[in-house]
Specification:
five-stranded mixed β-barrel, 26% helix, globular, alpha/beta
């Protein structure tokens, strides 16, 4: 299977074109945000306030990078367990309009339902490969909540960021498909 080269942020057509099991190479801008940032973002919306950054169409990478070494844009940048964002993700999809997510691990049914209703894929980056993944990140710019340190909302300029579509916008789950032959 050939790797699909795609650009972030995603438009609806790109988001809906990805299928469970697709290997992708992402170039463009993705947004780094973990649980502390997600909590703040959803609390801001719950108060009826405007978010400090426009995330419509964004691809969110669940990452808390380590500090950059001299000459690097970022330190190790491996994925965070996605389930930690599940309480906030339906809001991020339904109300904010994000168009993709990158992390590792399973997602709740509420998240999958929001993904299907809004045409949003979930991709996995390979855990344990943070140093390798960081080589595809060319620039790191904090956009909001700087006081959260590595959990701040940040723009990542990426080139050939590797990921695998785990759950597509139709709810097809690559984790389940891959395990099915062994469950007999």
């Amino acid at each position: 299977m050939a790797t699909k080269k795609i650009t972030a942020p995603f438009d609806a057509e790109t988001a809906r074109s990805l299928r469970a099991g697709d290997e992708v190479s992402i170039t463009g801008t993705i947004i780094a945000a973990r649980d502390a940032a997600h909590k703040r973002l959803t609390e801001t919306l719950a108060r009826g306030e405007k978010l400090p950054v426009d995330l419509k169409g964004a691809v969110i990478y669940y990452v808390g990078p380590s500090p950059a070494k001299p000459g690097q844009a970022i330190g190790s940048a491996g994925p965070t367990t996605s389930g930690r964002m599940d309480a906030y993700t339906p809001t991020m999809i339904n109300e904010v309009g994000i168009k993709g997510m990158i992390g590792k691990g399973y997602r709740s049914q509420a998240v999958v339902d929001a993904m299907k209703a809004n045409g949003v894929p979930y991709m996995a980056a390979i855990g344990g490969c943070g140093a390798l993944i960081s080589k595809s990140i060319k620039k790191y710019t904090v956009l909001a909540y700087e006081e959260l340190g590595p959990e701040a909302v940040a723009a990542l300029e990426v080139e050939d960021f590797p990921a695998i579509v785990v759950i597509d916008s139709e709810g097809n789950n690559y984790y389940e498909q891959g395990q099915a032959p062994y469950r007999k």
